[in-house]
Amino acid sequence: MTSNFRLQIVHAKDGKVVEWIPGNRIEVDIVKELCYRLRSRGVGAFKTEAVVLKAVEEEFAKMLWDLKSQV
């Protein structure tokens, strides 16, 4: 599914912008990577909502950090 929005990462000091076109592989990979990370944490049946939400929050934050470090 293509969006009308672009993902961007902006360097805090010099303002350099890196962006990806909508529907680019990076968007798809973000979703797949989050699912992979959550699966490896054992998030599934018999987990409370609070446990799942905390896992999503933590793994998404780690993914964003990893993505930023690759730019």
List descriptors.
single chain, 71 residues, mainly alpha
List the helices and strands and how they pair.
Layout lengths: L6 E4 L6 E4 L4 H16 L8 H22 L1
Antiparallel strand pairs: 1-2
Short account of what is shown:
The chain has 71 residues and is mainly alpha-helical. Helices cover 54% and strands 11% of the residues.
Overview of this protein structure:
0% of the residues are buried. With 71 residues, this protein is mainly alpha-helical. It has a two-stranded antiparallel sheet with strand order 1-2. It has one domain (7-70). The model has no long low-confidence stretch (mean pLDDT 86). Helix content is 54%, strand content 11%. Strand 1 and strand 2 form a beta hairpin. The protein has two helices and two strands; from the N terminus they run E-E-H-H.
